[in-house]
Structure formats: structure tokens, C-alpha cells
UniProtKB/TrEMBL annotation:
<dbReference type="GO" id="GO:0016787">
    <property type="term" value="F:hydrolase activity"/>
</dbReference>
<dbReference type="InterPro" id="IPR002591">
    <property type="entry name" value="Phosphodiest/P_Trfase"/>
</dbReference>
<dbReference type="InterPro" id="IPR017850">
    <property type="entry name" value="Alkaline_phosphatase_core_sf"/>
</dbReference>
<dbReference type="Pfam" id="PF01663">
    <property type="entry name" value="Phosphodiest"/>
</dbReference>
<protein>
    <recommendedName>
        <fullName>Type I phosphodiesterase / nucleotide pyrophosphatase</fullName>
    </recommendedName>
</protein>
Length: 388
């Protein structure tokens, strides 16, 4: 494998290990701490969307408190380094090959693509208007991801489990797939997110609370990671976490993680599938996202599609078959039988630039910041632990 690929390694410091480690720190039977969390009565896990380890250190002056906690080794997001996969890995304690949410978009049984953020069809070449149809009833989240979540297991063990996330996340497909079993606490902004997390650390019994902040990722996509809006948001996140840490009681632990890092995409390094007809020959569906494409091919076309994509992308990325990616452990050590058809027949992960779709995905193609691939900037994430 090429030297710029940072693959998942199952070493116990991936997102799938965070909640099991927190539950072990709470003394919950059946869980093992592989991260190194101190024993506690209340555990809070705060995920800052898009806060990669590389970015945190590159902009350390804008996040002095977070940087002061970054004394150990980073964690890994898993593959692909995208929010829907990472949140499901976190919430289930399983890698993508088990939980089945294998990308930003991926093949669904009726022959289209599932867009997990909206739990709807993603749109096809025949639907250039971008119309989407809900798949909540046709392919419900509990069927896509049938394993019990870490929250369900914790609740069954007598732990008070909560999630403090934006109100719009209530009852969404992704929440049902990744976070079911926790008491939903809808929030609007930093203020009520802080209030919910502090309420959890003052609860009477063993408590696990997950919180989510998404604005750093949003500004990274729109303006680019490291841009002035992004840096200003990072400063707010740093002050927010510092204020939380000051208010932690002595028997509580706060862990700050991220779902992926982010890179700025050079428009000169992009390949546009919608203007490169050879990249569509023999292709049935193109899923994934700009930095990590999953290509589903017609019967017998794997070799030809693999060669066409490899020839076009060249040194800008790595093109390999889905079977090769599975053999390399990218989706975890175990692949459930019903998950295998969701993984692309050919995968393209990018070192530089991306693979855009100017006609079918104009909004995504126009973003400045991206993630999904396996560079260090995208794969390494903080695992920052502090106590009261």
C-alpha cells in the first residue's frame, strides 16, 4: 500500500472504541477501556465535527486549551472518513463492515444510492433535478444497522444514557441507526449544549452523555479549513470546552473527539466524472464523495472500470477494487454478509484534489473543504481526555 495511506488498524484507538472505553470507565460490565479513561461516575463524550488532529496542531494558537490536552497519540476515524460512517462507528462501537453505513452515499437494495444524512435516495443520472425519495419505510435504519448500539447496551446495564444534539436530528434515519437507545436532548447552540452536558455530569447515577457540535465542519466546507471564519469558530470551540472543563465535578470525565479531519481541495487537481465519459463506461452507480468514491459496476466490468479510473486519476490518488480494500481491513476486520453489496466494486481515494460531479452534485463539488480519504489530515482525530 502507498505510504500516504493511513488505514484503520484495530489498535483500540478508533472512534468505535470511544463509547466502550467510556462505559468501561463507568464500571459497566462487558466493556473494555482501550483508550485510557480514568474511572468515573459520569462520562461526557463531545464530538466536534471536522476537528482533525493535524488541523488542531497546525492552528494550536487558536485552541490553547484543546492543544494542552493533546499530549498523547491521536485516534483514527476509520474508513471512509465521513460523518455518517464515523457517527455510526462511534454510536455502535463497531466498524463500517459491521454496522453497514459504509459511506456518504452507498448502494441500496432497489438499485439506487442511499444518502444517510437525509435517509433518502441520492439521485441518479436520470434524475438531474436532484429529487430525493425517503427510504425510511422502504429500507429502515434498524434493518440497515441491526446491531444494538452502545447506548442500548448501556441502558440495559442501568446507565443513564443521553444525547445532546441539534433538535433537527430527532428521529432521523441516522440517529435511529447510530444513536438509538439514548434519551434525546435537542439543543440549539453552545449555550444549551453546555447546559445539557453539565446537567449530565451532575446526574445522580452512572451517566453517559454524548454531545455534538457541527459548525466547525460547516465553515470548513464552505470557506476551507484554516480560513478566518474557521479559525474564529475554532477559538469559540476552545473556549467552550475550557468552560466545560472548569465546571466538571471530581467524579466525571470529558472526552473530546472528532469524526474526521479536513483538507482544502485544489480545483486544479479535480477530476469531473460528468465531463469524463470514459469514467462512466461500465458503471452502474457512483457513490461516496469527492475524496473517496465508491464505484458500482456492471457485471464483468470491474477490470475495465478499475483500469479507466486508475489511468485517469494517476498519482493524485489510489484506485483499487472493493475486494482489495476489504482485504486491507479498511472497513474493519469483519464484513457482515449483508454489508458486502454496499461496498463499491472499485474505490478511488484521493491524495490530492478530488473526484467531482459537476452536473449531479453541483453543491458538493463547489465546496472548499473536503474529507473522506485516508491521508493523515483526514484520518487522525483527537482523543482528548480531561477530568473534574
Amino acid at each position: 500500500m502507498v505510504d500516504w495511506i493511513v488505514a484503520p488498524d484495530g489498535a483500540g484507538r478508533e472512534l468505535a472504541d470511544v463509547l466502550p472505553s467510556a462505559l468501561a470507565a463507568l464500571g459497566t460490565a462487558g466493556f473494555t477501556d482501550t483508550i485510557g479513561m480514568p474511572g468515573c461516575r459520569r462520562a461526557v463524550v463531545l464530538l466536534v465535527d471536522g476537528l482533525g488532529w493535524t488541523l488542531l496542531h497546525e492552528y494550536a494558537d487558536h485552541a490553547p486549551f484543546l492543544t494542552s490536552l493533546a499530549t498523547g497519540a491521536p485516534g483514527k476515524a476509520g474508513f471512509p472518513t465521513t460523518t455518517v460512517t464515523s457517527l455510526t462507528s462511534l454510536g455502535t462501537g463497531r466498524c463500517a463492515g459491521r454496522h453497514g453505513v459504509v459511506g456518504y452515499t452507498f448502494a441500496e437494495p432497489s438499485g439506487g444510492l442511499l444518502h444517510p444524512l437525509s435517509w433518502s435516495t441520492h439521485g441518479t443520472a436520470e434524475d438531474t433535478a436532484g429529487r430525493r425519495s425517503s427510504l425510511l419505510d422502504v429500507w429502515p435504519p434498524e434493518r440497515v444497522q441491526p446491531h444494538p448500539t452502545a447506548f442500548q447496551q448501556a441502558e440495559a446495564a442501568g446507565v443513564d444514557v443521553r444525547i445532546a444534539v441539534p433538535r433537527d436530528f430527532k428521529d432521523t434515519g441516522l440517529t435511529r441507526a447510530a444513536m438509538r437507545g439514548a434519551e434525546f436532548r435537542g439543543i440549539h447552540a453552545f449555550g444549551d449544549l453546555a447546559a445539557e452536558l453539565l446537567d449530565a455530569v451532575h446526574a445522580p447515577g452512572p451517566t453517559l452523555c454524548y454531545g455534538y457540535h457541527g459548525h466547525l465542519d460547516l465553515l470548513g466546507h464552505l470557506h476551507g479549513p484554516g480560513s478566518l471564519p474557521w479559525r474564529m469558530q475554532l477559538e469559540q470551540v476552545d473556549r467552550f470546552v475550557s468552560a466545560l472543563a472548569e465546571r466538571l465535578p471530581g467524579d466525571s470525565v470529558l472526552t473530546v473527539v472528532a469524526d474526521h479531519g479536513m483538507v482544502t481541495m485544489d480545483p486544479q487537481e479535480t477530476v469531473d466524472v460528468d465531463t469524463e465519459p470514459e469514467l462512466r463506461d461500465g458503471v452502474r452507480l457512483i457513490g461516496g464523495e469527492v475524496r473517496a468514491r465508491q464505484v458500482y459496476v456492471e457485471p464483468g466490468a470491474v477490470d475495465d472500470v478499475h483500469a479507466a479510473w486508475r489511468g485517469t486519476i494517476g498519482e493524485r490518488g489510489l484506485v483499487l477494487t472493493g475486494e482489495q480494500a476489504i482485504d486491507e481491513g479498511w472497513f474493519g476486520p469483519v464484513i457482515d454478509e449483508d454489508v458486502r453489496p454496499r461496498i463499491g466494486d472499485v474505490l478511488a481515494v484521493m491524495r490530492e484534489g478530488g473526484v467531482t460531479r459537476s452536473a449531479l452534485e453541483p453543491n458538493e463539488s463547489a465546496l472548499r473543504g473536503h474529507h473522506g480519504s485516508l491521508t493523515a489530515a483526514e484520518q487522525f482525530v483527537p482523543l482528548l481526555v480531561t477530568t473534574g
